[in-house]
Amino acid sequence: MSSITLSNLSKRFGAVDVIKGVDIAIEEGEFAVFVGPSGCGKSTLLRMIAGLEPISGGAFHLDGELMNDVSPDKRGIAMVFQSYALYPHMTVAENIGFSLDLKGIPKEEIRRRVGEVSEKLQLEAYLDRKPQALSGGQRQRVAIGRAIIKQPRVILFDEPLSNLDASLRVQMRAELQQLHRTTGATIVYVTHDQVEAMTLADRIVVLSGGQVMQADHPISLYKEPDNLFVGQFIGSPKMNAFPARVAAVENGAARIRTDDGWEVALGGFRSLNPGDRVSLGIRPEDLSLAGTGERADITVRAILSERLGMETYLSFETSGESAIARVAGDHRIDTGETVPLSINLDACHLFDTAGQAIRRGQI
Amino acid sequence: MSAKFERAEIWRNRFLILPSMLLLATFVIYPACFAVYTSLTNESLTGPAALNPRFVGLDNYTKLFTDGNFWRSLAITFWFVLFSAIIGQLVLGLASAMLLRRRFALRPLVNAVILMPNAVPEVVAAMMWASMLASGEYGTLNNIVAWFGVEPQRWLTSFPLTMIIVVNIWRGIGFAMILMTSGLSSISEELYEAARMDGANPRQVFRRITLPLLVPTLFLYLLVSTVSTIAIFGLVFALTRGGPAGATELIGIYIYNQSFNAYQLGYGSAVAVVVLTFSLFIGMLYVRALKVDV
Ligand SMILES: Nc1ncnc2c1ncn2[C@@H]1O[C@H](COP(=O)(O)OP(=O)(O)OP(=O)(O)O)[C@@H](O)[C@H]1O
Ligand SMILES: [Mg+2]
User: What residues line ligand 1, using a CB cutoff of 6 Å?
Assistant: First the structure.
């Protein structure tokens, strides 16, 4: 139940800079999710918060208290490891109660609190089992139990669901949301999974190469990415980026001409000058099949269509890498066929040559 | 899998273990059986019995029970195994394995120093120690203790059992360390991190995490080292010949002395058979306790 402030936090392994000056503020009771490509430093950042990795530079405040040099068990932070890290020689009850036992809390009290926690996590039936005799989901719950029995101010999760199968993941996701509601603890959660990030997070922190690319509410990230990286990282399939230039700016609308030769007119971009190079970002779901009689914005040649039943992923040729349209309903489209597409112009994004978003209405 | 295929498989497997079975039969089982047979005779190297060994039933075994030297030798072996293998090598081996998991500047050197004694042939090791422990002012150890103002000692005469225990610890730490290192490396780093998050101090981590998870390795080590330490001969024989006055006469040396110094092959064999049975028993005990497949 505590706010986390990371200021200019950095981490160096030998000569390698892994975390390069990160500023993140997570509010009390928030569910924050770190996402980013593999190797970008998510786990490292989490372990620095936990106290398992020393902080090379910058400051970490928990509730305004400097935590840089506080030992892991004194921070009031619990961590759930990716591989659960349950003690294999202890029963479920001993695993959950271990931290209390270390503190010398009376057995009676430990039993009572283990009872409470296990009831909450539906583990009562397994208290005398060893971890080997549990399923993946049950082990996960034991790991969570071991974390929450400490009544931590913050709970850290490092890809906790990645070892579970799809249906169990959905179930555990719901349980995590429930857990967040009932404990009110601040949660920091690392994941590779877009859906997990979008559904669980109050705030998503997108990391790349040890730097924060953007931190915001999931829907804001989706609707208003600060840069092309975030635009392409959030959303699946990823946002198409068409190299383009500004052809003309006339009464508040910019005509953007892609290198493939087609044009769109986007309203609201006032800061553009004719001739500027830009990237036109269009999400696959903002491209749809133009119905008969409807005016098509572009006509493209299909490379591949993937039929998922309720929707169809259509890959089509451009001069650069192929782009994707995610169109509703099932369509049978052959390779080489020309397809008319219409574009949701209000949802198009523009990025400058450095990849920074150009916002509508910006002066 | 068809029954026929399964049968063929079984035959092939039998064929595969044939070479090791032959070797075992020739060099282990046959000599062991022969020792059992010899122990039931009065076979000897000199005198009339050498020409004409007689079957004497359990005479050798009954004699054994009233032989004070046998019991003394057994007691010496017990203390030797207890202090050198079970306590000395194990504790120091575990300590060095844990130390060498950390990174520090002299790590490769320390590693080499600990492993070296294992690589030296045992007679060479015994010679080294003979010079180390030599009495008078030329003994290396005497020179060392002289710095602290201690009079020259006759180490192998005054503290014979202690000295051979020290020598054997020196020789065995390396093996213990290798085994313990492999045991430690099977404990995942995340467990230690989880324990740290749970607030365990280093002592608690050792007692509650490391030690329990090391139990299988510890038992395996105890099995191997107990049995092999009971059988130690060359190192101690080359150093003391079992002396002075039988103070370091381990059971292996006792068997040798009875057989080849007292020329009583039959009696020596009886002792050997008792020790073999004893070792097997200990081995079985450990395996039971461990419930492992050795
Ligand atoms: N102990 C270490 N010594 C040196 N480099 C390290 C160490 N730990 C991590 N790194 C490096 O730091 C970078 C970030 O690693 P980290 O584990 O935080 O990535 P991650 O974002 O969690 O990736 P993933 O999604 O694959 O888990 C990687 O490039 C990794 O090689
Ligand atoms: Mg990671």
Answer: A 13, 16, 18, 36, 38-44
What is d(CA B98, CA B28) in angstroms, rounded to the nearest whole number?
Answer: 37
- Output the CA A235–ligand 2 centroid distance in Å: 21
Q: What is the average per-residue pLDDT within A146-170?
A: 88
Number of CB atoms found within 10 A of residue A193's CB? 16
Predicted pLDDT of residue B1: 59
Give the mean pLDDT of chain B: 84
Q: Are residues A103 and A10 in the same domain?
A: yes
Query: Are residues A220 and A254 both part of a single domain?
Result: no
Q: CATH number of the domain that A52 lies in?
A: 3.40.50.300
| Residue to mutate (ligand 1; options A9, A18, A33, A159; most atoms within 8 A of CB) | A18
**Residue in A44, A77, A102 to test binding to B, most B beta-carbons within 10 Å:** A102
Write down the residue that tokens 């045992």 correspond to: B122
My answer on whether A57 and A135 are in the same domain is yes
Residues A202 and A285 in one domain: no
Per the prediction, chain A carries an average pLDDT of 90
> What's the pLDDT at A284?
94
Residue A363 maps to a domain = no
With respect to residue A170, please indicate whether it lies within any of the assigned structural domains.
Answer: yes
CA distance B112 to chain A (A): 27
Best mutation site among A13, A48, A188 for ligand 1 pocket (most ligand atoms within 8 Å of CB): A13
Q: By the 8 A CB rule, do B50 and B284 touch?
A: no
Closest residue by Cα to residue A351 from A206, A251, A217, A244: A244
B198-228 per-position pLDDT tens digit: 988 999 999 999 999 998 888 888 888 888 8
Closest CB to B196: pick one of A72, A86, A89. A72
Strands (DSSP E) found in A259-318 = 263-267, 277-282, 287-289, 298-307, 311-316
What whole-number distance in Å separates Cα of residue A72 and Cα of residue B195?
10
Domain boundary pick from A208, A233, A258: A233
Number of domains in chain A: 2
Residue A155: strand, helix, or coil = strand
Q: Which of B48, B68, B59, B53 is nearest to B267 (CA)?
A: B59
Q: What is the pTM of this model?
A: 0.81
Q: Is residue A346 part of a domain?
A: yes
CATH fold of B59-290:
MetI-like fold (1.10.3720)
Kindly list the residues from chain A whose CB atom is less than 8 angstroms away from the CB atom of residue B194: 79, 81, 85-87, 146
- Minimal C-alpha gap between B228 and chain A (Å): 30
Write the pLDDT tens digit of every residue in B251-267.
888 888 877 877 777 78
Domain ranges of chain B: 59-290
Select from A203, A233, A263 the last residue of a domain: A233
Pick the closest to residue A113 from A132, A133, A93, A128 (CA basis): A93
Q: Are residues A186 and A258 in the same domain?
A: no
Residue A351, in any domain of the structure: yes
**Phi, psi for B267 (deg, rounded to 5):** -65, -45
Q: Which domain holds residue A325?
A: 240-358
Cα–Cα distance, B6 to B8 (Å, whole number) = 5
* Yes or no, beta carbons of A79 and B212 under 8 Å apart: no
